[in-house]
Protein backbone atom coordinates (compact mmCIF):
# COMPACT_ATOMS: atom_id res chain seq x y z
CA UNK A 1 0.00 0.00 0.00
CA UNK A 2 1.06 3.56 -0.65
CA UNK A 3 -0.33 6.70 0.96
CA UNK A 4 -0.64 9.56 -1.52
CA UNK A 5 1.22 12.72 -0.50
CA UNK A 6 0.67 16.31 -1.60
CA UNK A 7 2.19 16.77 -5.05
CA UNK A 8 2.13 13.07 -5.99
CA UNK A 9 0.84 12.03 -9.39
CA UNK A 10 -0.23 8.58 -10.44
CA UNK A 11 2.67 8.58 -12.88
CA UNK A 12 5.25 9.51 -10.25
CA UNK A 13 3.96 6.88 -7.84
CA UNK A 14 4.02 4.27 -10.61
CA UNK A 15 7.61 5.16 -11.62
CA UNK A 16 8.81 5.03 -7.99
CA UNK A 17 7.34 1.56 -7.63
CA UNK A 18 8.24 0.18 -11.08
CA UNK A 19 4.65 -0.38 -12.20
CA UNK A 20 2.56 0.98 -15.05
CA UNK A 21 0.34 3.93 -14.16
CA UNK A 22 -2.42 2.17 -16.14
CA UNK A 23 -2.11 -0.93 -13.94
CA UNK A 24 -2.02 1.23 -10.83
CA UNK A 25 -5.22 2.98 -11.94
CA UNK A 26 -6.94 -0.33 -12.73
CA UNK A 27 -5.92 -1.99 -9.43
CA UNK A 28 -7.33 0.98 -7.51
CA UNK A 29 -10.49 1.57 -9.60
CA UNK A 30 -9.30 5.04 -10.64
CA UNK A 31 -11.17 6.28 -13.72
CA UNK A 32 -9.32 9.60 -14.00
CA UNK A 33 -5.55 9.30 -13.32
CA UNK A 34 -5.48 13.03 -12.55
CA UNK A 35 -7.75 12.58 -9.56
CA UNK A 36 -5.84 11.20 -6.62
CA UNK A 37 -5.88 12.81 -3.21
CA UNK A 38 -3.47 13.22 -0.29
CA UNK A 39 -3.99 10.47 2.31
CA UNK A 40 -5.58 8.17 -0.30
CA UNK A 41 -4.36 4.59 0.04
CA UNK A 42 -3.29 2.88 -3.20
CA UNK A 43 -2.60 -0.80 -3.84
CA UNK A 44 0.80 -1.22 -5.49
CA UNK A 45 0.21 -4.72 -6.85
CA UNK A 46 -2.55 -6.72 -8.44
CA UNK A 47 -5.18 -7.57 -5.84
UniProtKB/TrEMBL annotation:
Domain of life: Bacteria
Xref: PROSITE patterns: LYSM (PS51782)
Record-annotated LysM domain positions: 1-44
InterPro entries the record matches: LysM, LysM_dom_sf
Name of the protein in its database record: LysM domain-containing protein
Lineage: Bacteria, Pseudomonadati, Pseudomonadota, Betaproteobacteria, Burkholderiales
